[in-house]
Design goal:
Blueprint: E1 32-40, H1 43-54, H2 60-67, E2 77-82, H3 88-96, E3 112-114, E4 117-126
Antiparallel strand pairs: 1-2, 1-4, 3-4
EC number: 5.2.1.8
Catalytic activity: [protein]-peptidylproline (omega=180) = [protein]-peptidylproline (omega=0)
Enzyme class: isomerase
């Protein structure tokens, strides 16, 4: 539902926000993010899911439905999460990501390791 631009997403998979010249840009301060994730207990399964998105060009939400091992099978959507409500590494990664869409996600690569397992994270919006 975000505006999809007709560019090929070279920043797909990057953790940093950057402008067209590849220079890092500052993200505006946010207190909450609308986040989706794919949670896998095993690193190998998370890497398989990551490949489906990056190489096979599958939509993030479809891969989440197939690979995520948590209760958020609604395309991996966790909804709006406020700062302080997430485990440290997950929160750090989520607030570092630039908002994107399921068909052209900017996501965590490599997956983020937490006590829950390995997360592939994408952010849809910030506020």
């Amino acid at each position: 539902m975000g505006k999809a631009k007709g560019s090929k997403a070279p920043a797909k998979g990057s953790k940093d926000a950057s402008d067209k010249a590849g220079k890092p840009t500052k993200l505006k301060a946010a207190t909450s993010v609308k986040v989706r994730h794919i949670l896998c207990e095993k690193h190998s399964r998370a890497m398989e899911a990551l490949q489906k998105i990056k190489v096979d060009n599958m939509r993030f939400d479809k891969v989440a439905e197939l690979y995520s091992e948590d209760k958020a099978k609604q395309g991996g959507s966790l909804g709006w999460m406020v700062r302080g409500s997430m485990v440290g590494p997950f929160q750090d990664a989520a607030f570092a990501l630039t908002p994107s869409t399921c068909d052209a996600p900017k996501l965590t690569d490599p997956p983020v390791k937490t006590v829950h397992g390995y997360h592939i994270i994408m952010v849809e919006d910030r506020k």
